[in-house]
Recover the amino acids of this structure.
């Protein structure tokens, strides 16, 4: 087992909100406790969700909107809230196992202090689409996997393993020892259009405002930049991550 052992969220229950996240959770191996459906809700999407719950013999509770509003902390639940076990964080070894099972070079995304749960969810959603084998986040000064992240990921959190580690710099060294090249985003670096992605990769995305921390930056193999021609010389962290993830995808999956 890797020294960066995966850990579980400390809470015994998590509420998943929104139709896509709830459906993906029901289709996953996650332990589910109860499905709450807003009274008066109907339609194909709701019927499919109820059908999945019935197939798994999960209790379906019909409740007023006020009940679902409370359970979802007044977020947009779209008429469904699922009570489930928390997401289990993966170990670094498990991320490598995903790549091995797919018979692909490892491709991980490490997030250095991404604090906005919507950014985290969006990055996980893109990671799933781009074939990333796992996302690595720190224990501290970072958004963790919550119902907001699950909803922002449109359910992709059920398909992308997330490892939570104590020390990013130590994890970077471990990844290097296991054959990965580590690249970080920065205003000054190699133009991503000249980026040599012909290796197992860990892509590091820095904090929304401050970028990568000093210690993490010192351990990067190469800095990558996205040139911009407009007046605003910065991109949202999830947008920058998306561009670079799909640059790797483009290089690794060329048109025949």
């Amino acid at each position: 087992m890797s020294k960066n052992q995966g850990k579980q969220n400390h809470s015994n229950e998590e509420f998943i909100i929104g139709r896509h996240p709830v459906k993906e959770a029901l289709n996953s191996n996650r332990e589910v406790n109860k499905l709450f459906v807003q009274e008066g809700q109907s339609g194909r999407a709701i019927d499919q969700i109820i059908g999945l719950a019935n197939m798994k013999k999960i209790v379906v509770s019909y409740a007023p909107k006020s009940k679902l509003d409370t359970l979802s902390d007044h977020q947009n639940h779209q008429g469904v809230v699922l009570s489930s076990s928390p997401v289990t964080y993966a170990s670094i070894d498990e991320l490598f196992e995903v790549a091995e099972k797919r018979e692909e070079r490892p491709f991980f995304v490490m997030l250095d202090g991404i604090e906005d749960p919507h950014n985290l969810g969006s990055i996980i959603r893109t990671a799933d689409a781009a074939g990333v084998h796992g996302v690595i986040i720190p224990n501290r000064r970072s958004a963790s996997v919550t119902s907001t992240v699950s909803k922002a990921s449109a359910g992709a959190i059920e398909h992308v393993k997330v490892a939570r580690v104590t020390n990013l710099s130590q994890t970077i060294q471990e990844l290097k020892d296991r054959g990965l090249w580590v690249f970080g985003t920065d205003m000054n670096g190699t133009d991503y259009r000249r980026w040599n992605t012909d290796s197992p990769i860990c892509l590091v995305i820095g904090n929304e405002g401050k970028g990568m921390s000093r210690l993490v930056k010192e351990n990067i193999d190469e800095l990558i930049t996205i040139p911009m021609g407009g007046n605003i010389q910065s991109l949202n962290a999830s947008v920058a991550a998306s561009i670079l993830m799909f640059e790797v995808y483009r290089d690794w999956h060329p048109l025949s």
Summary: Residues 1-10 have pLDDT under 50 and may be disordered. The two ends are 39 Å apart (CA to CA). The chain is about 35% helix and 20% strand.
